[in-house]
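Q: I'm writing up a methods section and want to include an example of the input and output format. Could you take the sequence below and give the corresponding predicted structure tokens, formatted cleanly so I can copy it straight into the document?
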Amino acid sequence: MDAGIEPADIAVTVRFHAPAKKVKEALKEEGLASVLLSSDPKPDTEGVRVGSWYALKGLEFRCVAVAGVCEWALPLAKAVTPQEVDPIQHATDMMSERCLLFVACTRARDRLHVSWHGTPSEFIEEAEIA
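A: Here is the clean output for your methods example:
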């Protein structure tokens, strides 16, 4: 916002909806207006957009922060069929998890910030971001 970017042109996104609510509260504590994407905000609603990676699908923002790209969140173990159970389904599930991150990251038109805590997702290393 110091660069003149309107809050509505900024999105902060995390994998799950519940942490998105915590992000919204943290922004509020910092004195920043924000609105949850799940509330389907009108374009003229003031505030940084906050939501899950899924909620960003089909949207575009000048700046996007994709947070929480940690090893435990991506790939999500319960979303991926074990290799030994079904190698083909495992590969498909892994691609779906990669695509989820891809969609979140490609919502940024001008600036993208990807972050994690602890150990980053293996996809971060694959993309040679870390």
